[in-house]
Specification:
alpha+beta; Rossmann fold; 2 domains; four-stranded antiparallel beta sheet; about 20% strand; globular
Length: about 140
């Protein structure tokens, strides 16, 4: 279960999240809907442990998320603004990710590259934005 309790977050005096409460039961599927600036991305960054809340508690399976490697290693996060090494192609990026993640699944990577029909030898900086999102998804899920 994901539990967000009484969470506040401010940026430069602007309250982005205010007294937020949310409970997501295991196995359920939720969607976040809201206008620009409503706090959707801020909430996701908190639930994934990218940001630390100013007040309140965020837990997954009753464990705090922020700076908790045992929780964080079981989740993936693809930000709106992607960053890739500009000189790397998809295959080189995969090799880099493989060196960082002990549970890297090379078979899953190969299947997904084939399914998305991406050229592993093409520099990621030359991919369209949509193709870059696909590459980020492949790298995250592998």
């Amino acid at each position: 279960m994901i539990k967000v309790s009484n969470v506040d977050k401010s940026f430069d005096g602007h309250l982005a999240l205010s007294n937020l409460d949310l409970n997501v039961k295991k196995g359920s599927i939720y969607g976040l809907v809201g206008t620009n600036g409503a706090g959707k991305t801020t909430l996701i960054k908190h639930v994934t442990g990218v940001l630390k809340q100013d007040r309140g508690i965020i837990t997954i399976e009753d464990q705090p998320v922020y700076e908790n490697t045992s929780i964080k290693k079981r989740m993936g996060y693809i930000p709106d603004d992607l960053y890739f090494f500009s000189s790397y192609n998809l295959k080189e990026s995969a090799r880099f990710y493989k060196s960082l993640y002990p549970k890297w699944d090379q078979n899953r990577y190969a299947q997904m590259v084939k399914r998305f029909n991406l050229d592993e030898k093409r520099k990621l900086s030359k991919f369209s934005k949509g193709m870059q999102k696909q590459a980020a998804f492949i790298l995250t899920m592998s």
